[in-house]
Amino acid sequence: MKLSITAGKSFDMKEGVSIYETLKANSVFLVSPCGGKGTCGKCQVRVTSGGAVVRSYGKLGQKERDDGLVLACLTSADTDLQIEIPEHSKLVLGGKIAVSIFKDTAAYLKSYGLDFEPLAKRVSLTLPPPTISDNIGDLERLTRALAELGIANMQYSHGFTATVADIIRQGGFNATLSYSKTNNNTSFEAIAIYPQGQNPGRYGLAVDIGTTTVVVYLVDMADGTVIDTGSTYNSQTKYGDDVITRIINATEGGGLDDLRNTVVEDINTIVDFFSSKHNVKSSEIEAAVISGNTTMAHIFWGLNPAAIREDPYIPTLNYYPLWNGAQAKLSINPQATVFTIPGIASYVGGDIVSGILASKMHRSTGISLFMDIGTNAEVAIGNDEWIMTAACSAGPCFEGGGIKFGMRATQGAIESITIDPVTLTPSISVIGGGVPAGICGSGMIDAIVELFKTGIINQKGVFNRTKTPLVREGDEGLEFLIYKADNQQRDIVLTTVDMENLIRAKAAIFAGVSLLLREAGLTLDILEKVYVAGGFGNSLNVEKAVTFGMIPDLPAEKYVFLGNTSIIGAYLTLMSDTLRTELESIASKMTYIELSVVGDYMDEYMSAMFIPHTDLTKFPTVAAALGF
Amino acid sequence: MKLSITAGKSFDMKEGVSIYETLKANSVFLVSPCGGKGTCGKCQVRVTSGGAVVRSYGKLGQKERDDGLVLACLTSADTDLQIEIPEHSKLVLGGKIAVSIFKDTAAYLKSYGLDFEPLAKRVSLTLPPPTISDNIGDLERLTRALAELGIANMQYSHGFTATVADIIRQGGFNATLSYSKTNNNTSFEAIAIYPQGQNPGRYGLAVDIGTTTVVVYLVDMADGTVIDTGSTYNSQTKYGDDVITRIINATEGGGLDDLRNTVVEDINTIVDFFSSKHNVKSSEIEAAVISGNTTMAHIFWGLNPAAIREDPYIPTLNYYPLWNGAQAKLSINPQATVFTIPGIASYVGGDIVSGILASKMHRSTGISLFMDIGTNAEVAIGNDEWIMTAACSAGPCFEGGGIKFGMRATQGAIESITIDPVTLTPSISVIGGGVPAGICGSGMIDAIVELFKTGIINQKGVFNRTKTPLVREGDEGLEFLIYKADNQQRDIVLTTVDMENLIRAKAAIFAGVSLLLREAGLTLDILEKVYVAGGFGNSLNVEKAVTFGMIPDLPAEKYVFLGNTSIIGAYLTLMSDTLRTELESIASKMTYIELSVVGDYMDEYMSAMFIPHTDLTKFPTVAAALGF
Predict the structure, then answer these.
(1) Rounded to an integer, what distance in angstroms lies between the CA atom of residue B148 and that of residue B518?
(2) N or C: at which end does chain A have fewer Cβ atoms within 10 angstroms?
(3) Is residue A107 part of a domain?
């Protein structure tokens, strides 16, 4: 049985196997935040001929059904099938995305009052050539010379040892050794040895593995220069948008290896590109620091993440031993030291610890709030003595998940919306211009705040259908028409369900912040700074986010937007042993609060399910501006 | 161009490539102690048709040339070639050989006054199942439970860590951990974890990698039982008989990997056989101890041995870190702890250190001599306070190398000879009976002593051609006819060159012993015991070896034959942390004497080039018996 794509390839298809699975097996990936479970309604394809067996239409509305659309994950076939894949269903992977906000990371490290102490160190050794009366082994000779320099307890891996004899003779017993400190700082690990005369580079990687994006910095460890930065979408997205769908996929037979290889390949694609562009040998990349949430770090290392999603939510480990480049499967020196930023719990991972290091909040006596809003949201409150942290079940809706026309902030996304207070017609701004394909996070916040300000929705996000004919009946109840399409395109709307999801998400974030404050016995006014991190943070409009009730009603000058702090923390850790120790101290003093078991979580959450909140005293400037 | 073997296979052959190389490339191996360098004269083949290009006949005599024989390593072809391979040129690999002399190794370990403390240990853990309020990671939970049992500083490899989450859940958070102490005894390394209910075996390997033979013991680490013992010829023999030819082969392009894989495969063949026979899973083999000379240990681990044979003879290392089963490429648990017995120098390796542990001489206040006569010979003198050691350049002639009809002590070897004092005709005893194929070490010593006693050779090993017509003119000068062949077989003789080689070998051993004694400022009479080890040691006739002047003239009761002590030391090290520490202490107190640079080595050596010696006061009982 054949599955053919119009103006595309044909594949063998088995009876009972869905179009989605058949395409995936042939590396054709559809947008599918739910990972092919039939719940998100995004993997739409149009059947143009053949005997489709539609198990269910799922979320598809009548108009879409009339248009010949089905959900690929709920449809199989009993004869050859011809399909079309609409543009909005095609998953785009591997696109380049900008992330950095710190222009001069080396100067930023210096601002901690520290010099460079990179993960991979170098020492020049002049070994006395062996004689009959001084005939100890090469490795013992190395150890003796290191001891004379005060470097004791060097550990030698099998891979390293196999290179020693040839190399020290090539350099006439003069050699340069690369090595790193081990985690407990009581011993050292040999990475590589080079003969005198060779002057290899000493490079390191800072890697941020986000659920949605992967960012890699190539760093010259000799002087801390960031030689290049690269990023790509995490191709695991083809298995689902959030960590839960990834865990489900990993837990099913063989899935873990696939997921692991997928993200490793994303990283290696960037590393290989860097190596070629900058004439860096992979063997010269001697260290790497990996920062990611707990699930991402587990999958990166091939550790079964199943228990992360099962009550009581336990990772295999939070503190990672130092493993090596070969074990990480990275395109770097097989003996390279790979440090993984420690996590706190299943839903507060190394990316948050890394972010706190980058924010410096752990060095301040004043109390700060740290929020990382990405595919999910994590929050932390504290200072130089204590830090409390929690994960908010915000979900991926600000990155497009669970929103009918939601998408990431890429080409074709509506990124901002204003609604004329008189005519009630929307004006949109589209990334890259042209016909819009969907709405990204900042566009959604804009839209909901504008709809609220103009009275088209009420405090609960419920449409007032009498206000404007742009509020119309859709497949899922009332919806607001943001963009009226021509014949060939789709109308872009925000639905009642979208409103509910967005309000739930912001309520989860705000409830998290409120509860953490309460657990700490503090109130909002004590906060000196609010650090907002995450890819989302880059484009967030503070005033609108406050009006929405997503972030606390504090003066704008208290807000500091940091962008991707996970990658900056990884860089700092790569380039400073002192900051690596500081990072481990942050991790050890962070207290994780499981919000779902804190008694009044549901109260806080329900109170935040209004725009901006049921308790307007929490949003005094919003209340004043709206004239409440 | 084709190379065909009569009644055998045909292979492609290239112009200029020798028959020897062509056969080797097709896994047909010839006897070739020199490794195909044209010097040993053993890789004889008979050309029956075709255009052979004979670069040189090397050591072949006229009779052999008349018989159509050529040396395969010195002969190529310019047309298709048909050859016959005589039985005596065929290298037999993989045959089983008996080695053990200690019947009850577990009782022997107890005789040190010690209990079992195996390399791989087990501990049962009852972990409190995680809860929301006790939500640390699995590995941190393991570490906490171990700390409560006083086991601190457990190290976790990547491979181990990947198994933890599933296994502890399978057992309801009750698990059994296998682990070992690391080399410095300050930390531990996790090997494997099993869920409660599973009761896997805990097996270990003791492995002796000799230049000629490989011996493997499968040990139940729970009670010290040796479940099975196996041995095989070291298939590296196809690359040459001694360590020097192996090093040359390893140093040439790609050879190291071949040599490494060859011996690893020898070991794995035995291990796989054991696993199948005794229903042992390879994952249940959790530890191994490797004992071998420095070259064998280097090649086993894939370490370039080139510098071992270049003045000043330096190994990559003498003290091996603990590496694992995967790195060793063994058919055992990839995380298994593999301990390598430390060596002393390039020509006194771990096998000698292991042997000294097994001899117990390091525990005695009295001074003993230890001799390990194998493919080469090493000697050591000392007691519980000091040990001095040296390697004797004895070469492999007692195992057949460098002797025209020399062979190992296998089927067809003449193992003992007497010569009638009246008729001067020899009587021979052949291993396995039948037509003799050659002479093994004990046969050579028998022969030379009998020839000497009957006056057929003089003290220098020179033939008296007037004594008997059995002394005849051969291709290499005079020779003694030991066995007169029928038409189809070869006469077996001992040649003048053989005499010279045997006397050189015994002189090297005796000079080594004498010099070590002198360096220690001691004389022979102080020796309380002489331990003779090695495969050769099994069949050695003390009286004849003394008469030959190979071993000191001491009362028979001072001689203790231990057989293969390398494997026994490996067993002891596998089963006792205390003996492992004792072994390392032996290694650290052993002083290596490089005989070739001791001033009067040549004098001692030259003095020993007589039967039994120029200085008969050193052999009083021999002198008395012979009536000198």
Answers:
(1) 55
(2) C
(3) no
Chain B residue whose CA is closest to A318 = B137
Question: Of A540-544, B203-207, B490-494, where does the model show the most confidence?
Answer: B203-207
CA dihedral A194, A195, A200, A202 (to 10 degrees): 30
Q: Backbone phi, then psi, for B316, in 5-degree steps? A: -60, -40
Average pLDDT of span A537-555: 86
Which residue in chain B has the smallest CA separation from A153? B184
Choose the mutation target among A127, A133, A135 for the interface with B, i.e. most B CBs under 10 Å.
A135
A301 touches chain B (CB under 8 A): yes
Same domain, A236 and A179: no
Q: What is the mean pLDDT of chain B?
A: 91
- Let me know the angle formed at the C-alpha of A428 by A424 and A429, rounded to the nearest 5 degrees: 160
Q: Which amino acid is at A268?
A: N
Look at residues B360, B386, B616 and name the one whose alpha carbon lies nearest to residue B519.
B386
Residue B539 pLDDT exceeds 70: no
Task: Tell me which residue in A140, A158, A307 faces B318 most closely, judged by beta carbons.
Answer: A140
Query: What number of helices (H) and strands (E) belong to chain B?
Result: 17, 27
Q: In CATH, what number is assigned to the domain containing residue A171?
A: 3.10.20.880
- Contact state of B318 with A136 under an 8 Å Cβ cutoff: yes
**pLDDT above 80 for A96:** no
Say if residue B114 is exposed, middle or buried (CB neighbours under 10 Å; 0-12, 13-18, 19+). middle
Whether B466 is in a domain gets the answer no
ipTM over 0.90: no
Confidence label for A537 from pLDDT (cuts 50, 70 and 90): very low
Q: Whole-prediction pTM value?
A: 0.87
User: Residue A501 pLDDT > 80, yes or no?
Assistant: yes
Residue A599 has pLDDT above 80, yes or no: no
pLDDT of residue B538: 54
Structure confidence by residue, pLDDT tens digits, B516-525: 999 999 999 9
Q: Say if residue B224 is in the same domain as residue B318.
A: yes
Tell me which H or E stretch contains B209.
Answer: strand B203-209
| Structural domain containing residue B18 | 2-89
Edge to edge, what strands does the sheet with B75-84 contain? B10-12, B2-5, B75-84, B44-54, B69-71
B385 touches chain A (CB under 8 A): no
Same domain, B215 and B322: yes
Among chain A residues, the shortest Cα distance to B159 is held by A327
Task: Determine the Cα–Cα distance for residues B198 and B217; give it in Å rounded to an integer.
Answer: 25
- pLDDT at position B536, please? 59
Higher confidence at residue A85 or residue A98? Answer: A85
Instruction: Give the residue on B whose Cα is nearest the Cα of A184.
Output: B153
User: Quick one: pLDDT band at residue A102, thresholds 50, 70, 90?
Assistant: low
Same domain, yes or no: A321 and A213: yes
Q: Does A164 touch chain B (CB under 8 A)?
A: yes
Contact: A317, B155; criterion CB under 8 Å: no
B103 contacts chain A (CB < 8 A)? no
pLDDT in tens, A187-208: 999 999 999 988 899 999 999 9
Inter-chain contact B321–A346, Cβ cutoff 8 Å?
A: no
Q: Can you read off the two tokens belonging to residue A595?
A: 């919000």
Q: Is B152 on the interface with A (CB under 8 A)?
A: no
CB contact A135 to B (< 8 Å): yes
Phi, psi of B617 (to 5 degrees): -65, -20
Interface check for A156 against chain B (CB to CB < 8 A): the answer is: yes
Q: Does B306 touch chain A if contact means CB atoms closer than 8 Å?
A: yes
Same domain membership, residue B252 and residue B170: no
Q: What is the mean pLDDT of chain A?
A: 91
Find the residue in A nearest to B184 (Cα). A153
pLDDT at A24: 82
Question: Taking CB atoms and an 8 Å limit, are A162 and B301 in contact across chains?
Answer: yes
Q: How many domains does chain A have?
A: 3
